[in-house]
Structures are given as structure tokens and as C-alpha cells.
Amino acid sequence: MHEEYLYVIGGYHPDSSILKDIWRLNTKSNAWETCHVTNLLPSTMASFSLSQYLSYHMLLFGGTSFPFGHNQSNELYSLFKRDGYFNLVLEKASGDIPPPCYGSAFISAGDTHYLVGGTTGREYNSHIWKLEKKNSWHWTKLTNETTHLLPKGRYKHEAFIKETLIFIFGGGSTVDAEPLDKLPVFDTASKNFITISTSPDSKYGFPLPRKCFGAVQHEESVYIIGGCSHDDQKMANVLNDLWRIDLATFQWTKLEVVLPVGVFFHSASITPDGWIYIFGGNCDGQSKVRTNIVQRFSIYST
Q: What letter would DSSP give residue 72?
């Protein structure tokens, strides 16, 4: 999201496989238009990770092509806008370069970026890598198999940073989803995990375990949007609920509003004035029906 525009980058559609384009939605006129890109986006634009740290400047990492999990990437790209065009640059990186993976969380804290978890399609991890630019981009792995309270490996989770703490929400594998009553939290100062117990909504309790959901942060609150949990190994339970957690008190609140169309594998973004936009996603439990609709709600009307 930038100014009045919502940007959609890459993705997957079964009719055309991996999508290697950029679109933007004018949130004032509700009109879509394609964006000019100086060179082709990579073929691994499904479940890649994005970290935005400047206006019109973001980092892209990893992702998979189709069939999912057969061709993963650990390449790092800069994507930035200049003179009306998006420019994609393959960056050279050194250090503890993460393995090829997809479904990771990628977050920024000023000039420092953190990559959290992900999957090769067969193995899942919950490791943390730090990315910094000095003379060039440099990766540092902050965890290993002996790290205190290292959580279960996962993908399609979300992560947010507050001061030195990285909060990890949900995620899972192809056959399970992680709960949200207790959150794994990584302390970038001590380089250890802690577990934080959250407080349930007084009426609805805790949100269901989930993965492939949307999440945005506004001030001290994180909003969890839709996603899916698993009733069995063949059918996903598609969710349309919306939740807020206060990062100061760790209190969950279920919002009264629900998504008109329950989705998972969607994207979400928030405007400065508190409008949350949700784009696309799967809307059936067998992942056969996808949508390109835009749903939105105001955090001030919930």
C-alpha cells in the first residue's frame, strides 16, 4: 500500500500458473491498472516473501514455481520504483544464506530485516535470519537446533516486530495449523525464544489455529484476517473471521464484522487511516476456487 494505491505483486492462478506482473488498484476510483516493470519478475513468485522498508522500495526473497515445492528460490531481489517504472535487481548476498524456501515471513526494523521460517516443500523450519546492508547485503543466522524453545517448523505464518521482539502468529504445514493462544516470540537481543500466553476474548475465546491468513499491524494492534485450519488432511476449513490482539496486553478481541467471502492464501494491507484491504485468495476447502475480489473494512467501525 502506498498513497492511494494498493499493489499486487506476482502470485498464482491455475489457468496461467505463476503470475509475473504487478498491478495497482486506485482506492479512490476502484480502477485497476498494470504497472510497467523494466525486466521480468522471476518464475518463483508464488508464496515469496516481501519486506518493505522505504516508499516504493522493497526486498523480495524466495518463493516457489509450479508445481509447488519442486523449484524453490533463495535469491534476494530489490524492487523499487523510479521514473514511473518498477525496477527489479538481483542482489548479491553473503553470509549464512537461507536455504531455498517459500512461505516465510519477512519483516523490517529500519535498515535491518528478519526472515522467519518457511518450507522447502518437504521440510519446515522456524529459524530466524538477519539481513543487513553494509557494503553489500549480508545474512546472519540467529538460531540453530539447540536454540532455547525453538518452535515447530512452519510456513504461511505472519510475524511482527516490536522493539527487540519478533512475534510469530500461526502457520503450519500441509496437514496442520498452529494455535494462537500461545505465541512463539524471538528476542533479537538474547537470541532465544520465549512463549507468551495470550488472553481470550471474553465471549469467543481464542481464534482457531490457522495458516495462510492475512495480517496487518496498526500501532499496538495486530489484525488477523481469515485463513484456514484443517478438519482433515484433504479439506481445509476456510475462515471468514477477524481478530485483533493488543501487543501491550496480549488480549484477543473477536471483531463483529466478518469477511463477505471467506478466503485463505490472500493478501492484506492497511491504509494510514485504518482501512484494511484484502485481495484474492482461495475460497473453497479443496483449493479449486480462487477469487480476484477486493474486500475491505475500517478498523474504526468494528
A: B
The dihedrals phi and psi of 189, each to the nearest 5 degrees, come to -80, -50
The rounded distance, in Å, linking the Cα atoms of 63 and 59 is: 13
- How far apart, in whole angstroms, are the C-alpha atoms of residue 261 and residue 293? 9
Q: Give dist(CA 166, CA 168) in Å, integer.
A: 6
At residue 300, what are phi and psi to the nearest 5 degrees?
Answer: -90, -5
φ, ψ of residue 55 in degrees (nearest 5): -60, 125
Query: Quick count: other Cβ atoms within 10 Å of Cβ 264?
Result: 26
Task: List Cα–Cα distances, 290 to 14, 89, 126, 130, 279, in angstroms.
Answer: 9, 30, 28, 34, 11
135 by Cβ neighbours in 10 Å (0-12 / 13-18 / 19+) ranks as: exposed
Greatest extent of the chain over all pairs of C-alpha atoms, in Å: 53
Whole-number pLDDT of residue 70: 80
pLDDT at residue number 233: 63
pLDDT, tens digit, 9 for 90 and up, residues 86-102:
999 999 999 999 999 99
Q: Which of 210, 271, 220, 199 is nearest to 242 (CA)?
A: 210
Q: Is the peptide bond before 67 cis (omega within 30 degrees of 0)?
A: yes
Length of the chain: 302
DSSP code for 92: P
Which residue ranges form the domains of the chain, and what is each CATH number?
1-197 (2.120.10.80), 200-302 (no CATH)
Q: What does pLDDT average to over the chain? A: 94
pLDDT confidence of residue 302: 66
pTM of the model: 0.95
* pLDDT of 54 strictly over 80: no
Q: Which residues pair with 218 in a beta bridge?
A: 221
Asked whether the predicted pLDDT for residue 69 surpasses 80, the reply is: no
Query: How far is the C-alpha of 26 from the C-alpha of 299, rounded, in Å?
Result: 20
